[in-house]
């Protein structure tokens, strides 16, 4: 029977992590469980850096981006000695269940603990939305909304000047942010790592055709993991912008959104998702289920074994990609 649980946030921060921590603490308290907040992810666990959390200590955080527990990456934890120290810290504090809020790297750590007998449950939180087994991860919706806000502003100035605007967004391995923001923001083109057939000369022709048909501007969304003409470049946004300028002669402006995408108050969708995920993670521990991640599929909150998470791949939605292309035709 679980009596005291630990919660930590690990890897990259994502807006909505605080709402998840709040849900864990309050659902646990509802069931008479104690909660310890572990600071700085696995780094804090290894050095036994944790404090008891109460319903009061998670007041006034649901609307805040980032994570009150802080987050870190820990190389020490990935080694046997570090893992043993983490297990010792859990035992010292009589913690019998652990909730890990983070991305797939963090879940590999959770699985390592799980294999050593620690009851662990993962809560997916990463703006990249690239975790297999769940349709959405905490932070993705906020990040996409942040990108769309920026695109709206760029659109106003773009219409006045008849320029080409290239916007580089996060997504080193996956184009989920670029695709959703591109469709919702009405971008003319979306360049993602998954689209290996994308040709920049075709893109230039498309831009020229758009202007010939009276388009006032072109907005092109580029994921940071996009490889222009198959090449690995430092900033694909910069590369694509310069390429269009050289080949078409159009004035081109390049915006790299960077960390602005991660910040800000979480959207309603992320707060609700985080609240449901956090609560479900506690319930799973109470039901004796662990070695799993919570997730959402077809609007249902589910649990997914870690083994399934690591064997899958969060594919890009090809139908949505095609739809965005059709709807952007001038
Ligand atoms: P994001 O994708 O948003 O950056 P993440 O959870 O994938 O989040 P990582 O930096 O990959 O972030 O992982 C976070 C931490 O999880 C690492 O610093 C490490 O301590 C632990 N970790 C990652 N991979 C493993 C592994 N194979 N075994 C044990 N621990 C791991």
Please write out the topology.
Blueprint: E1 4-9, H1 17-30, E2 34-38, H2 41-46, E3 50-53, H3 80-92, E4 97-102, H4 104-115, E5 120-124, H5 140-161, E6 164-169, H6 176-184, E7 189-191, H7 200-212, E8 218-223, H8 236-248, E9 252-256, H9 268-286, E10 292-297, E11 300-305, H10 306-311, H11 318-327
Parallel strand pairs: 1-2, 1-4, 4-5, 5-10, 6-8, 6-9, 7-8
Antiparallel strand pairs: 2-3, 10-11
Residues 10-12, 42, 73-74, 77-78, 102-106, 108-109, 112, 126 line the site of adenosine-5'-triphosphate (ATP).
CATH architecture of the largest domain: 3-Layer(aba) Sandwich
The CATH topology of the largest domain turns out to be Rossmann fold
Structural class: alpha/beta
Shape: elongated
Structurally, the number of domains stands at: 2
Query: Given the structure, what is the number of helices?
Result: 11
Approximately how much helix is present in the residues? Answer: 40-55%
Give the topology string: H per helix, E per strand: EHEHEHEHEHEHEHEHEHEEHH
> What's the Cα radius of gyration?
22 Å
Q: Please, what is the average pLDDT?
A: 95
Any low-confidence stretches, pLDDT <50, length ≥5? Answer: none
- Count of DSSP strands: 11
How big a fraction of the residues is strand? 15-25%
How widely separated are the two ends? Answer: 62 Å
Characterize the main sheet. Answer: 7 strands, mixed
Briefly, what CATH class of the largest domain?
Answer: Alpha Beta
The kinds of small molecule bound in this structure are: adenosine-5'-triphosphate
Strand order of the largest sheet: 3-2-1-4-5-10-11
